[in-house]
Amino acid sequence: MSQKDLQTRLDELETRLAFQDDVINTLSEQVAKQEMDIRELWDAKRLLHSQIKDVSHSSIKREEEESPPPHY
């Protein structure tokens, strides 16, 4: 291979490497954002679960506390 061919190949490889570094950084940032979104969703789920438990305990009686239906 000539010196010019080697330089062309080296330039191509450097360009690919720079592009790959950019893609890796972009993907890493996206993963970090998604992780934060997932954490927020988990917190919201926990809050909703807690609120549902509070509401369900206050408005639903246990079976033995319920009066029988009118047709009995």
Automatic annotation (TrEMBL):
Extent of Basic and acidic residues compositional bias: 53-64
Annotated Pfam families: SlyX
Region of interest called Disordered, as start-end residue ranges on this chain: 53-72
Domain of life: Bacteria
InterPro entries noted in UniProt: SlyX (IPR007236)
Assigned protein family: Belongs to the SlyX family.
PANTHER family, A to Z: PROTEIN SLYX
Annotated protein name in UniProt: Protein SlyX homolog
Organism: Marinobacter aromaticivorans
Gene that this sequence comes from: slyX
